[in-house]
Structures are given as C-alpha cells and as structure tokens.
Amino acid sequence: MSKEKFITLKTTAVPLPVENIDTDQIIPARFLKATTREGFGENLFRDWRYDSESNPNPEFVLNNTAYKGKILVAGKNFGCGSSREHAAWALYDYGFRVVISSFFADIFKNNALNNALLPLQVSDTFLSKVFKTIEENSSAEIEVNLESQSVTLPDGASEKFEINPYKKACLMNGYDDIDYLLSLRDEIKEFDLTHA
Amino acid sequence: MSNSKTLFDKIWDAHVVKQKEGYPDVLFIDRHFIHEVTSPQAFDGLRKRNIPVFNPKRTTATADHNVPTKDQHLPIREALSRHQVETLRKNCAEFGVELYDLGHPFQGIVHIIGPELGLTLPGMTIVCGDSHTSTHGAFGNIAFGIGTSEVEQVLATQCVLQHKPKTMRIEVNGKLEKGVVAKDIILYIISKISASGATGYFVEYAGSAIESLSMEARMTICNMSIEMGARGGLIAPDETTFNYIRGRKFAPQGEAFEKLVETWKQLKTDEGAVYDNVLIYNAADIAPMITYGTNPGMGIRITDRIPTAEELKEINEKASFTKSLEYMGLEPGSSLLGKPIDYVFIGSCTNARIEDLRLVASVVKGKKKSPDVEVWVVPGSKQVEEQARKEGLDKIFEEAGFELRSPGCSACLGMNEDKIPAGKYCISTSNRNFEGRQGPKSRTFLASPLSAAAAAITGRVTDVREFN
C-alpha cells in the first residue's frame, strides 16, 4: 500500500536535547489502547508536555511557540525501550517527518522507516551544531535531501547520512515491505513446507 | 576465510528465504506470538489488503498487557482495554489464530507461556510485537521484538525483512556469591555497557556462570538484552534446556523429541568463529544490583554509592544524569541502602516464573511485610499461579501480607489499573525504570526477586546478604 513519498524537506526544527529518550516518554503505555494508527499525536510526550491535570507544561519545548517544524532534533539513543510502533505513529501524527539524532535504537529505527518517518543519524559534532543553530535562531531552516543523503544548515554546514538503499527507495516511492514480501509468496510457501 | 559460524549465524542462515543485493534478508519466522496491544492495526492491514494469515498454526495469541489482575472472571471494567481484548478475540476467531484468553488455563504473559507450553524451541526464529521477545533466546533460538508493521508482515507472509545484526559474545565466568541471582548478572552487565551498549548487536551469553543457570534464570538474562539495546540474546542449548522442554504440552514427544535433541546438540558456536565484539566478566565481581536512575543502565551494586555527575565519562551525559536523579528525588553520591520504599512489585516477563516466586517465598517465609509498604505478587501465567498454590507459596505470601494476584503484565508498564502513584518509590522485579513507566511520576528501583522480597519485609532498600 502506498504511503506518503519523501524526497526533500526544508523546515524549522524542534530541539529536545535529552539522551536515551525511550518510547515510554514518546507515548506512555496507558495511551496504547487504540486499535487504529491515528490520533496518537495528541499524547506525544504526554507526561513531559502536560501536568497531571492536563495543563500544558510551559517549560516543555512542544509548548513553546518559538519552536515549530517537521524535524525533531534529539539526544543520542533516541527511541530505546519498548517496540511500540505507536511511538513512530505519534511522532508522525503530530507532524514530524524527520528525527535527527546521533544514535537510534534498532526497533524504533525500523518502525520509523516503515511509517514514512526518517530517522536521520548524524555525528555527535554535527548534532551539537544543529542544537546550537536552533538555540541561536529558532526560525533557522534545516534542509534534508534524501536523494543525496545530506542534511544542511542555514550557514551551509552539511553532513551526509547513511540509509539502506532498499529503505531509501521505499521512502522515496512510498512503497512498503509487505508489497515486496507478498511478491515472494510462492517461494515462502515452499520454504515453509520444506524447512525442518 | 574459515567456515566456522557462531550459533546466531547458523540459525539466521538456516532461515533466510531470499537474499538480494541492497535488500534486507527475507527471514522466515517459525513462531509468532501476538497480544492485544500491538496486533489490532496489523489485522486491519490484512483486511485492507483482503488477504488471510499465511500460516495460522505458527501464530499463538494471549491477552496480557492491559488485563486486570483482579477479578479476571468479570468483564474488563475499563472500556478501552475491554475493547482491545475483544478486538483480539474477534481477530483471532476471524483469522483462525489460537488464543489463550482470560480465564484459559494457558493464559499469561506472552513470554512466559511460550516456553512453559513447549512452543519455544531451540533453533527457531521467534518474533512478537514486544521488545522482551528476547526472553525466548534462552532456549538457543533467534527471538526478537518487532513493530506492528512487522507483525503485519509476519501474519501476511510468515517472514520479516531484516538486516543481519552484528554479533557480540558476553561471557560470565566463575561462581556467583550467595544472594546473587540472574537478575543481578544482567543488571550488572547493563550497568557496565549502558542502555545503548549493545545496539546493533545480537548477543550470545556464555561462560560457566551462565551455563550453571536454570532455564528460568537464563530467561531472565535474555529478557533484558533489549535494555542494553541488543535486538536479542541467546544461550546455546544444553541438557538443562532439553530437560526443561521434555514433556511440555506442545513440544514434540517421545522418540521424535529425542531425535530432535540430537540435532539441537549441534546448535553451538563453532570453534574459531569470530564475533564482532567480545566482553568477559567475572561472576565474583557481581553483587545484588539496584538501579537508581531512569534507564536500566543506571545501576549499581547495592552497597555502592550513586555516582556524581563529575564521575561520568561523557560530558554530554551530565544533563540527562542530573535530570534523571531529580526525577528520582535522589542525591548524587548517596547510598540507597536503608532508603524507605512504598511499593514492592514482584512480576513481569523478567521475574514472574515459579522459581522467582520460590526465591521470594524463601526470604519471606514466616515473616510479615513492613506496614509501610504495599506488595503485589503478579504471577506470569495461570500455570505459574496454579503451581504456586500447589506448593503453598500462596499461604506464605498471605501470611506475609502480600497480595497474590492473577497473571498479566501489570505494574511493569501500568497499562491496567496497577499503577504506582506519583512520587512513590517501588522496588520492582521488572525490566524498565523509565520515567512514568509504572504510572505517571512513579519512581522505580529495579532489583532481583530476593532484593525485592527483603525490601518488602524491612520497608527499605536492603542488602539481602545481610538479611535473615
């Protein structure tokens, strides 16, 4: 089934300079009870974003009107913990299309790629530069080019990023993994029958 | 190049249906477990594509994540949870998947029922939409957690697309001190290599300290592989493994079983096989462990002091460290021993098997809990619950003032009503101490069943080696 295609993006970014952000922070377990993929953005970072009476926490970046955009910039080991794909759905549903970090947890990375959300891994040095750029100017625009696998800051500083060629093609064309797997059905059937 | 292979490589290579340049491997999955939380959207995907489940016999379902642990015979009170469990029932019926529903004698936490029913076997590939699927690796198989899109892939094609991870060998040699158990081993390892130290790797645990463990203890080790970022962890099968599986409900029986054992004996890493990374620890260095922070890598020996920001190796970790200690209400450089606690949670796929309950009972027998703490014992499955009653553990817990509940994930993640209140401290046998994991603003100390049991009696963080 086709998904939104991703090729290039130029937008402001939201900084969240915290390390080891686990998927329980991205979407707490008590909000995983829906049986659809939509609507999780409402509870994205719920316990950081709101107090126990559901009042917005003014100190949290998503409640700061100075910061907007489709890119989230976060500390290393983003998305660790639970395999809940709801974390990727919540980020996407809120409006993010890219997460920039210096390190991603494995399961989150797969989940993001399966949902047209680009986990963009940069070096520690470049990540510090991104944070500094946004800190100095919250309306600074960051450009992500999936085709050339590069991310560029307003001052021209740029870094290349890695992505598996298959996943890149999926993102750029809006394909998903099941389309590919279903095309192998007969081979898999044979394997299922003969495999000990 | 040598032809020597690691155990991981042998199992992986035997399950690759197709390899294509630039593509992830198409990996065949022998056993798929599902539960109510991460499967509904996957079944919806099948409906949208108008396709059946590829091979329903390879998938087993249970309800565990959001189920109440009291009055399980009554309809679930909370509407959204009830709807999710009802959706699972409907989906399993429509697509022909076996479901061990609430009230069924096989119901329980998905990673506890698979092994106890003999569904989890050596040499298999096993997945589930849950990161603690790594638990099953204790039997010498490749088991890992997946997202819901991947659950849909497995339902639709019995395969997942995966890049082969790197391999890491973690050896623990020597003898464990009295009072030190499997949970302490894994918390120790994670404290050494951090919550992201094994990201990108699949871990094989080995060494004399690991080989001497029971199957249930090995499951505790493999369970927490994900807490250091590893996709999974496995242990080569041996006589301990075969003896555990022999005679289990869905395991092959009799001659067929003994024939399989002969092939399972080949499931070990070849001499000379190369891992991408090797770490070696000494069992004698491990003490009862406890976490002080908000990720499982933030652990110390129970007699050690919490580090200070100055002692951290990486400068950019300091901000997260300080934030974490503020959340926990703890002082850098202080000791946790004697720290009053409010709740004790004994449960989860890490430590809710019968041996865990026996460990707890061995500490609390004939004693009473501190009046200041509330203690929940949540068995991992109906079978564990039955066994505990058969052995009279329920009486020991009752006399101690503990509450023995019905099976489920419970306060490990607080999806049901079992939540630790804001600001309260809980010593927990579960696997994650993330902010709010056990309930909004709750504070978690991860520890072994022995340490949790001792704390239940004293009402404080206690060194179980000094406790009698």
Description of the molecule:
Chain A has a 4-stranded antiparallel beta sheet with strand order 1-6-7-8, with no helix packed on it. Chain A has a 4-stranded parallel beta sheet with strand order 2-3-4-5. Chain A has helices at residues 23-26, 46-49, 86-94, 106-113, 124-136, 165-173, 177-182, 185-194; strands at residues 8-11, 13-16, 71-74, 98-101, 118-121, 142-145, 150-152, 158-160. Chain A starts with 7 loop residues before the first strand and ends with a helix. Chain A has 196 residues and is of the alpha/beta class. Chain B is of the alpha/beta class and 468 residues long. Chain B has 15 helices and 19 strands. Chain B has helices at residues 7-13, 40-49, 79-95, 110-116, 148-157, 182-193, 208-211, 215-223, 239-245, 254-264, 318-328, 354-364, 382-390, 393-400, 449-458; strands spanning 16-18, 25-28, 31-34, 59-62, 98-100, 125-128, 142-145, 159-162, 166-173, 201-206, 232-234, 277-282, 289-291, 299-301, 343-346, 374-377, 403-404, 425-428, 443-446. In chain B, the strands form 5 sheets. A 5-stranded parallel beta sheet of chain B has the order 5-4-3-6-7, with helices on both faces. A 5-stranded parallel beta sheet of chain B has the order 17-16-15-18-19, with helices on one face. In chain B, strand 13 (289-291) and strand 14 form a beta hairpin. The radius of gyration of chain B is 21 Å and the shape is globular. At the A-B interface, helix 4, helix 7 and helix 8 of A face helix 2, helix 3, helix 5 and helix 11 of B.
